[in-house]
Amino acid sequence: MAESLSLVAVPDFTAAMTSDKTFQLLGRPAKATVLFFYPKDNTPGCTTENIAFRDAYEKFTAANVEIYGISRDSLRSHESFKAKLELPFELISDPDEAMCLQFNVMKMKQMYGKTVRGVERSTFVIDAEGRIVKEWRGVKVATHVEEVLEFVARLN
User: Fold this and answer.
1) Which of 39, 102, 124, 149 is 20 to 30 A removed from 52 (C-alpha atoms)?
2) Alpha carbons 44 and 42: distance in angstroms, whole number
3) Contact assessment for residue 156 and residue 127, using Cβ atoms and an 8 Å cutoff
């Protein structure tokens, strides 16, 4: 898994999310925001990743960190997925891939012997000033949430 530190400012953006809310990057009250991009609702790896973030949610909020999941799925799909897994955080819908392209997470991947274009599982920690302070690309789900939690716990 590749990790990097960049301190790159992210242009402000808004996006539709679950619970009839709108996400806006800048002006968030938390000390940091975690955006995790995942390929698709109701698939094994994505379900496991969302459950891991759900189970660690109280530790993130105790550290004054907000969590948001992002995929290309519709809000309807997200609402169902969120309810089924009892997720305490919102899911952002990116059907036109605007955020996926902004964060450069669209990649060519091999699936069942075919090359397909899809979302590379990636996580970004963005500070209160809107700068990426940490990113993980090509995420492997197993211990990822613990790594993110360890990182945000060290933020000033």
Assistant:
1) 102
2) 7
3) no
- Run of H or E residues at 132: strand 131-137
User: Which structure tokens are listed for 18?
Assistant: 């679950």
* CB 72 within 8 Å of CB 38: no
Q: Which residue has the tokens 């679950």?
A: 18
DSSP letter, residue 127:
E
Q: Is 100 a catalytic residue?
A: no
pLDDT the model gives residue 156: 66
The residue with tokens 């809107």 is 130
Is the Cβ–Cβ distance between 132 and 10 less than 8 Å? Answer: yes
Let me know the angle formed at the C-alpha of 15 by 124 and 77, rounded to the nearest 5 degrees: 90
Q: Which residues of the chain have pLDDT under 70?
A: 1-6, 156
Active-site residue identified among 17, 32, 34, 46? 46
Q: What is the reported pLDDT for 138?
A: 92
